[in-house]
Specification:
Elements (H helix, E strand, L loop, with lengths): L1 H26 L5 H14 L6 H21 L15 H5 L4 E7 L5 E11 L11 E6 L6 E7 L4 E7 L2 E9 L4 E9 L5 H19 L5 H20 L5 E8 L1
Antiparallel strand pairs: 1-2, 2-3, 3-4, 4-5, 5-6, 6-7, 7-8
């Protein structure tokens, strides 16, 4: 019985080392050249071509385990117990928090203050897809709500003011967001087209808020402006940064 228990404990220890230490080291970050070089060197040193595939695999496991145990004992490898944050951008956007933002001058004095909040658009019969939010900005000149689309990494929305397009980005974390804003001067030949798209989205929003149009009709008009503005930023290198601030 003692031998069986000892065997089980030994097996559990080996399994833990292989899965929580060896496997991450071998697989590692695909960009981590040091990890790949480490594995390549010990294979070259200890594994011969004369061995069968089974023998080579057994030798590899043994060498790795012995080397890792030694490095742990000598403090060359430190095992982190910090849990990875598995929440997604959508998780943070769905928390319905209101974030306070401020822009400061060189003397660290607030020159502008505003709040940002997001509300997911989710209704029965909605067929245009998920990841869409009504982003509400409390301050001018783009005060009000705008359609934002979450692509998994950043929430984006666009605004129009005078003859300038504005791209807004939100990056989220546990207790704060980063709000970035960029500006792009519209080409004279494109002004009329963008005004028409923007006004169409604004009218559809009013109709949606008054229950006069469906959510799909509203989002369809918003997306015409959204993707046209997105294409303009993508095809133009003359955009400028307006600000990059953290909001809590």
């Amino acid at each position: 019985m003692n031998k069986i228990v000892s065997g089980l404990i030994g097996g559990l220890i080996l399994w833990s080392i292989l899965n929580f230490v060896v496997k991450p080291l071998i697989e590692g970050d695909k960009n981590n050249n040091n990890s790949r070089e480490y594995i390549k060197n010990f294979k070259k040193k200890h594994i011969t071509e004369e061995q069968t595939s089974t023998e080579r695999a057994s030798t590899e496991r043994k060498i790795v385990v012995e080397k890792i145990i030694k490095d742990i004992e000598e403090g060359k490898i430190i095992i982190s117990t910090k849990e990875e944050d598995t929440t997604t951008n959508s998780d943070h956007l769905n928390n319905q928090k209101v974030y306070s933002c401020s822009l400061k001058d060189i003397n660290n004095i607030d020159t502008a203050e505003w709040t940002i909040s997001t509300n997911a658009i989710s209704k029965v019969g909605m067929v245009v897809g998920s990841g869409k939010y009504l982003v509400e900005n409390s301050c001018c000149p783009e005060k009000g709500k705008r359609l934002g689309i979450d692509k998994g990494l950043k929430l984006k929305w666009f605004d129009l003011n005078d003859e300038n397009l504005y791209l807004n980005l939100i990056e989220t974390s546990v207790d704060k967001i980063k709000h970035k804003k960029f500006s792009l001067k519209i080409e004279p030949t494109e002004i009329e087209r963008f005004n028409k798209l923007f006004n169409g989205a604004e009218n559809a929003k009013k109709g949606y808020n008054s229950d006069l149009v469906s959510v799909n009709s509203y989002i369809s008009e918003e997306e015409k402006f959204f993707y046209s503005a997105k294409a303009s930023f993508k095809n133009n290198d003359n955009s400028t940064s307006v600000f990059d601030v953290e909001c809590k």
